[in-house]
Design a protein that fits this description.
Layout: H1 2-23, H2 30-33, H3 39-50, H4 60-82, H5 85-120, H6 128-151, H7 155-174
């Protein structure tokens, strides 16, 4: 849990730093960033963080979208406690923009690239010699476990035998 929170904070921090560099505003806060007129900035910075690299982080756009939604909820609650109606409106408007446009502008691009990469990936199949070695290993272990089970029937041995037999069956069917 702690790792998830720290990773989320680090991701939002990277977004904020990149946004500050883009608009040349060193005092820009996350609360200031979550305003409707800065939505285009957030989209462009997220795209840059996700896609415009040598090794793109294609899931980062979706992650940032979820984090921004949670940050909007937090901003709304804080504004509610402080009685700041302008901040409440900004939080709701930004959240609506994320709900309506984020998938089209960020996630869809990443999804297309992931599908393209998946289709163009070359699937390697194992060598026949390797499969034979693995098959021999499975058969040897199945025979040993059957021998042990005849002498001393233990539940752990039954479970292990079931796993070896299932692996053997999967290997047979994958031929």
């Amino acid at each position: 849990m702690m790792y998830t929170v720290s990773q989320a904070a680090r991701t939002l921090g990277r977004l904020l730093l990149a946004s500050r560099r883009t608009v040349s505003m060193p005092n820009l806060s996350l609360t200031d960033l979550l305003e409707p007129h800065r939505f285009d900035l957030v989209v462009e910075v997220t795209k840059h963080m996700s896609f415009n690299k040598e090794t793109p982080a294609l899931n980062l756009g979706k992650t940032i979208g979820n984090l921004l939604t949670n940050a909007c909820r937090s901003k709304y609650c804080l504004a509610l406690c402080e009685g700041d109606s302008k901040a409440k409106e900004n939080a709701l408007a930004f959240q609506k923009l994320i709900e309506r446009e984020w998938n089209d502008r960020v996630n869809r691009v990443a999804l297309k690239r992931m599908q393209t990469e998946k289709r163009s990936k070359i699937h390697t199949i194992p060598l026949t010699a390797d499969l034979q070695i693995f098959r021999d290993y499975l058969i040897r272990n199945i025979e040993q476990l059957c021998f042990h089970l005849k002498k001393h029937p233990y539940a752990d041995d039954w479970v292990l035998l079931a796993k070896f037999v299932l692996s053997r069956l999967i290997l047979f069917n994958k031929r």
